[in-house]
Design goal:
There is one protein chain. This protein has 187 residues and is an all-alpha fold. It is globular and about 40 Å long. It is built from 7 helices and 2 strands; from the N terminus they run αααααααββ. The longest helix is centred in the middle third of the chain and has 19 residues.
């Protein structure tokens, strides 16, 4: 359990961006923890960790989509920018899929895979993605002691089955203030 505290070094960043993008702060903290490579699950060092493990092309696409003009790949090592972009992207996925589980699956495996799974009705096809989603949900429960979040309500997942998770309203319209060009599929 003590390891879970490490990503929370950036508590104010997590709280600020979870509020800005209408995300459960426990969920955002759980994604940060899960995204960090095992070798990095130690106290964070400013400027050496890409907390939410965004791919440079995804971050560039987020910057482009949100109207920024100054993005550079090294920005991903700034916790403020990294968490802001990751929170924006997670909110985008939550809005698109209307499901926390599907949003997490897309964060891990990519939107194209989730779209294909939905079209074929097969469910989350990758065992590692199923494990990722399950682990993030467990981490979220653990994080709730530190970041009290919203009440949980049932939501619809793959195949129309009810899943546990949060039903969250749309994000605020405020965009990341530091951005540029790139390609991220935001539809």
């Amino acid at each position: 359990m003590a390891r879970l505290w490490h990503p929370l070094r950036y508590e104010q960043i997590v709280l600020g961006h979870s509020a800005n993008y209408d995300l459960d702060p426990a969920l955002l903290a759980a994604v940060i923890y899960q995204e960090r490579p095992l070798s990095r699950r130690r106290p964070l060092v400013f400027g050496r960790d890409r907390l939410m493990q965004l791919m440079p092309a995804t971050a560039q696409g987020i910057a482009d989509h949100t109207g920024g003009t100054r993005y550079k790949p090294s920005d991903l090592y700034d916790p403020e920018i990294n968490v802001r972009y990751g929170a924006w992207y997670l909110r985008h996925l939550m809005n698109k899929y209307k499901s926390e589980k599907l949003a997490l699956a897309a964060y891990n495996a990519g939107q194209e895979n989730v779209d294909r799974w939905l079209a074929s009705g097969e469910g989350i096809a990758f065992p590692e993605t199923r494990a990722y989603v399950k682990h993030v949900e467990q981490l979220k429960s653990s994080s709730r002691r530190i970041y009290p979040g919203s009440a949980q309500e049932p939501e619809v997942g793959l195949g129309g089955r009810a899943t546990s998770g949060l039903r969250l309203p749309g994000a605020t319209s405020r965009a990341p203030r530091h951005a540029s060009s790139g390609r991220v599929r935001c539809s």
